[in-house]
Design brief:
By secondary structure, the protein is α+β, with helices and mostly antiparallel strands. The chain has one domain: 3-Layer(aba) Sandwich (Aminopeptidase). The chain contains four helices and seven strands; from the N terminus they run E-H-H-E-E-E-H-E-H-E-E. The chain has helices at about 15-25, 40-50, 100-115, 130-140, and strands spanning about 5, 55-60, 65-70, 80-90, 120-125, 140-150, 160-165. The chain has a seven-stranded mixed beta sheet. Helix 1 (about 15-25) packs across helix 2 (about 40-50). The N and C termini lie far apart (about 30 Å). About 25% of the residues are buried. Coenzyme A (COA) binds next to strand 4, helix 3 and helix 4.
Length: about 170
């Protein structure tokens, strides 16, 4: 699959709504479930990423959005060296083909280039999300902590959340 990584823009709104709904419909990945992927949620992260961070999208050869990764620096003086609130979603039909890796490489390169004050990139990830954990570790993220039983799904299944960080 030929993939290009570019900055996200406001015209991606509908594509992001569809992408996040599609990804959230599959259990075990995103924290939010499909019904929680509302236009307000997409607006929330698009606006925060535009104001204080970054959104990168992966597009296929037909220019369809098949993945997105965003994050931002909190509006708190003592956290201005932290890139936080990261979320990544790759369409189920594009997973396992290197899209997630390309998104992270594009995101981290832009962080280094545009956010010279950032020294720490942090994210949360379910400990049983094997693909995501493997990807983050291969990019240099370390497991900094485990939040035991933080996630409880609709069937009552409980999972731990990992806090994973990359230091520049
Ligand atoms: C997690 C996710 C972002 C990874 O993106 P992806 O495009 O599927 O992953 P990639 O193809 O780039 O693979 C990256 C690495 O994951 C690992 N990996 C891939 N498939 C795997 C599998 N089935 N099991 C375990 N590890 C796997 C490999 O280490 C791979 O590295 P490689 O380049 O050396 O092969 C994507 O699958 C996704 O959106 N999942 C649903 C939402 C989600 O879980 N978001 C993250 C929440 S923390």
């Amino acid at each position: 699959m030929r993939i290009d990584i570019r900055d996200g823009h406001l015209g991606d709104f509908e594509a992001l709504l569809n992408l996040y709904r599609e990804v959230a419909a599959v259990p075990g990945g995103l924290l939010r479930r499909e019904a929680e992927i509302t236009p307000d949620y997409i607006r929330y992260f698009v606006e925060h990423a535009r104001a204080r961070g970054l959104s990168v999208v992966a597009v296929d050869e037909d220019r369809h959005v098949v993945g997105e990764l965003h994050g931002w620096v909190p509006n708190i003086r003592q956290l201005l060296h932290v890139m936080s609130d990261l979320t990544i979603a790759v369409s189920p039909r594009a997973q396992g083909q290197g899209v997630g890796r390309r998104l992270f490489e594009g995101f981290l390169a832009r962080v280094r280039e545009r956010f010279s004050g950032v020294e720490r990139v942090e994210l949360f990830c379910r400990s049983d999300n094997a693909r995501a954990v493997a990807l983050y570790k291969s990019l240099g993220f370390i497991e900094e902590g485990r939040l035991v039983g933080r996630v409880r799904d609709e069937r009552g299944f409980v999972a731990d959340d990992l806090i994973m960080t990359l230091r520049f």
